[in-house]
Design brief:
The chain is mainly α and 264 residues long. It has ten helices and no strands.
Length: 264
């Protein structure tokens, strides 16, 4: 069993390295980046502050009241049961087939929810709506992460796991050294939680940090999304953001799972 788990861990670490070291597309750097910077220079500072607050309030709402609503959109008990069955199979006879069964649900969650996000962002963009869709967008993101977490045997109701999820989002949507810094924080917190150590946390502060990172990542898109017709770009941006977050979440939760299994 150990050899299979170690092979899977090496595979995940290669995926992690690729995700964290994705080269900048030359076209993006030479053409799109200057255009984005020009648009950003036109965006009022007040809008940034408004977006920060909107994302923060969105996280507050979803964490405090929205999780039960989100859980109505998927079968939590089935996900937990599927994990128990597949994890039992791994314990009895670890092979690639059994581990792929654990991966399967997380892949399905990613595909379904990225499609929902693209449709939601595009539809609201066509109507000229930008800020009002933030709680909905965050709900789709957290729904995706929740389903992936359950697929690998992790919950999301404690402050520790909520902080882990917020750090995970930051690690997915940032770049370069800042991204690697968040990645290190995520690994430390994950190891701390899995060793049953209760860390000192400031959940509200992390919500603020994550809200600011979201603003940086989505500022131009949400500004454009506030205008009719042009705002359809919001669907593309929402898809790309959720695709990054879900891909990174699968890497991080699978790595946590494999490390935990190897330590048993």
């Amino acid at each position: 069993m150990k050899n299979i788990l170690e092979q899977q861990l090496k595979l995940v670490e290669r995926q992690e390295s690729k995700f964290l070291n994705t080269p900048v597309n030359p076209f993006m750097k030479s053409t799109l980046t200057p255009a984005v910077e020009k648009i950003q220079s036109m965006i009022p500072a007040k809008l940034k502050t408004t977006l920060d607050k909107a994302f923060f309030k969105g996280f507050q709402f979803v964490f405090e009241k929205g999780s039960q609503i989100i859980e109505k959109t998927y079968d939590k008990e089935k996900l937990e049961l599927d994990y128990d069955i597949n994890n039992y199979a791994v314990d009895k006879r670890a092979n690639k087939r059994h581990i792929k069964r654990i991966d399967k649900q997380s892949v399905q969650s990613k595909l379904i929810n990225t499609s929902i996000s693209a449709v939601e962002g595009g539809a609201l963009g066509l109507l000229g709506i930008g800020l009002p869709d933030i709680p909905l967008f965050l709900s789709v993101i957290l729904k995706t992460i929740y389903e992936i977490a359950l697929s690998y045997g992790y919950g999301y109701s404690t402050d520790q796991e909520k902080t882990y999820i917020l750090l995970l989002i930051c690690g997915a949507i940032t770049k370069d050294e800042e991204q690697k810094k968040f990645d290190e924080e995520i690994q430390r917190l994950g190891a701390t939680i899995d060793h049953n150590i209760v860390p000192e946390l400031k959940l509200e502060e992390q919500m603020k940090i994550t809200s600011e990172q979201f603003t940086e990542a989505l500022l131009t898109a949400k500004f454009i999304q506030g205008f009719p017709i042009i705002g359809v770009i919001g669907g593309i941006v929402n898809y790309n953001i959720l695709n990054k977050i879900s891909s990174y979440a699968r890497i991080r939760f699978k790595k946590r799972y494999l490390i935990r299994k190897l330590a048993e």
